[in-house]
Amino acid sequence: MFTGIIEATGKVEKIDRNESNIDFTLSGPFTQELKIDQSLAHNGCCLTVVEITENTYKVTAINETLEKTNLNFWNVGTEVNLERCLRFEGRLDGHIVQGHVDKTGTVESIENQDGSYFITINYDESAEYTTVPQGSITVNGISLTVAESGDGKFSVAIIPYTWEFTNMKNLQKGDVVNLEFDIIGKYVAKLLKSQRSNLIEKHQ
């Protein structure tokens, strides 16, 4: 479980294909604080630490993860947002983030608005995944508030601190980002879908 508040960024140091999986070796500021089997969110994708060296650690992404996320677009040198799992001993500053990426989206536009940034992202729309204005969305692991919401797209406003401290500053139009939709919204959407199905069956 995560909050979407990025602790730091790391860098991809090595990429090794292992049959249908990919092993990523990364460096980061708290590498020596990690433990084997620890969960760590990478651009919002929960991966397990499987190996630690003096300056790097390794995680493995299985094929299912690769198909749902933007990890296939990583290269050596890619900057990645990092967040360690939530400790239940303090304030929840973001929102409840599972680290289970729902799908990817594509950056439609980035507007510099006198120091802050307004980013619009497209995604393949479905009844299961939706956004609402002032609702929560996780983009590359970052807990953000939806500024505008439309069919198959939404916009978020990024403050200067988030822009500089995360890998948001590297985004360009057309880039693929990881999306995790709000867990409460997903449950509501599933409930409404079930109710609609039941209603249709009763009238058949």
UniProtKB/TrEMBL annotation:
GO molecular function terms listed in the Swiss-Prot or TrEMBL record: riboflavin synthase activity
SUPFAM superfamilies (alphabetical): Riboflavin synthase domain-like
Annotated pathway: Cofactor biosynthesis; riboflavin biosynthesis; riboflavin from 2-hydroxy-3-oxobutyl phosphate and 5-amino-6-(D-ribitylamino)uracil: step 2/2
Domain of life: Bacteria
Catalytic activity: 2 6,7-dimethyl-8-(1-D-ribityl)lumazine + H(+) = 5-amino-6-(D-ribitylamino)uracil + riboflavin
Lumazine-binding domain ranges (all copies): 1-95, 96-192
Keyword NAD attached: no
Enzyme Commission number(s) of this protein: 2.5.1.9
InterPro entries, per database record: ATP_synth_asu-like_sf (IPR023366), Lumazine-bd (IPR001783), Lumazine-bd_dom (IPR026017), Riboflavin_synthase-like_b-brl (IPR017938)
GO biological process terms held by the UniProt record: riboflavin biosynthetic process
Keywords assigned by UniProt, alphabetized: Repeat, Riboflavin biosynthesis, Transferase
Classification via CDD domains: Riboflavin_synthase_like
Start-end of each Lumazine-binding repeat: 1-95, 96-192
PANTHER family named among the record's database cross-references: RIBOFLAVIN SYNTHASE, RIBOFLAVIN SYNTHASE ALPHA CHAIN
Job of this protein: Catalyzes the dismutation of two molecules of 6,7-dimethyl-8-ribityllumazine, resulting in the formation of riboflavin and 5-amino-6-(D-ribitylamino)uracil.
Name by which UniProt lists this protein: Riboflavin synthase
Species assigned in the record: Epilithonimonas xixisoli
Lineage summary: Bacteria, Pseudomonadati, Bacteroidota, Flavobacteriia, Flavobacteriales
